[in-house]
Specification:
Helices cover 21% and strands 32% of the residues. Residues 243-248 have low confidence and may be disordered. The protein has helices at residues 82-88, 124-136, 158-167, 194-201, 216-228; strands at 8-19, 22-28, 40-46, 52-58, 68-74, 94-101, 115-120, 143-149, 171-177, 209-214, 236-240.
Length: 248
């Protein structure tokens, strides 16, 4: 097994609340290696009686930050791992991590083509790694992010995304709220559909790469509509929520 896939002991150095149910945990790694935006790490917890459980979490940070990674974790009430990470783990505590892992759902600035990112809820996490990498690398390619979320208070990375839009040319963000909208909101107020994707896609030049991450239904709906709009299937990468994929 390659060394980068061996378990190592990471130390929690920072905790940032993103929303009422989502926190970003920053870990210092003794055997850090650069990751590709879109990859994930495995976390392993071991109980005093020896019982172990593992979960995968997408990396939120950019590879330009050396020695540490950000993992953004949504607390699931019935989860085995996320309640421990969000409620119990404290700065200075240590935990077992393994990674980076994954080679399909990855993007590098040097690829050079415009980028369409489609995220639902905490599915924005690996997409944020791509956006941060895009900014850190000084990429000039246009990036569009279509972000579906239930309410304004559940927008992850809200302040940073708004700041990046103000400070960097080339990044545009389209929010669609499915339950509650901000006061005076005139943007999208529904689940992602064909018409919405048509309007967003019309604002980016072809060919472009697509990365979609979120609940299975959102991912399949968006991918199918994009193919119907003439986007080549080989240019679309997807990551779904589920027991065998990143928990996000």
């Amino acid at each position: 097994m390659r060394k980068i896939l061996e378990w190592q002991i990471a130390t929690l150095t920072r905790v940032k609340a993103e929303t009422p149910t989502v926190k970003t945990l920053t870990f210092s790694l003794p055997s850090w290696v650069p990751h590709f935006p879109g990859q994930h790490y495995d976390i392993r917890l071991t109980a005093p009686d020896g019982y172990q459980t593992e979960r995968s979490y997408s990396i939120a940070s950019e590879p330009e930050r050396g020695g540490e990674i950000d993992l953004t974790v949504e607390r699931l009430e019935d989860g085995e791992v996320s309640p421990y990470l969000d409620d119990v783990l404290m700065v200075g505590d240590q935990i077992e991590l393994r990674g980076p892992i994954g080679g399909y759902f990855v993007w590098e600035a040097q690829m050079g083509e415009p980028l369409l990112l489609v995220g639902g809820g905490s599915g924005v996490v690996p997409l944020m790694s791509m956006v941060r990498h895009w900014a850190a690398a000084g990429s000039k390619v246009p990036v569009l992010l279509l972000y579906s979320v239930r309410s304004p208070e559940e927008v992850i990375y809200s302040d940073e995304l708004n700041h990046l839009c103000e400070m960097r040319d080339g990044l545009r963000i389209f929010y669609t709220f499915t339950r509650q909208t901000p006061p005076g909101w005139t943007g999208y107020q529904r689940r992602i559909d064909a018409q919405m994707l048509h309007e967003v896609v019309s604002q980016i030049s072809k060919p472009f790469r697509v990365y979609i991450c979120g609940p299975t239904l959102l991912v399949e709906t968006a991918a199918n509509h994009l193919v119907q709009l003439g986007i080549a299937a080989e240019n679309i990468r997807t990551e779904r929520f589920g027991p065998t994929g990143p928990s996000l």
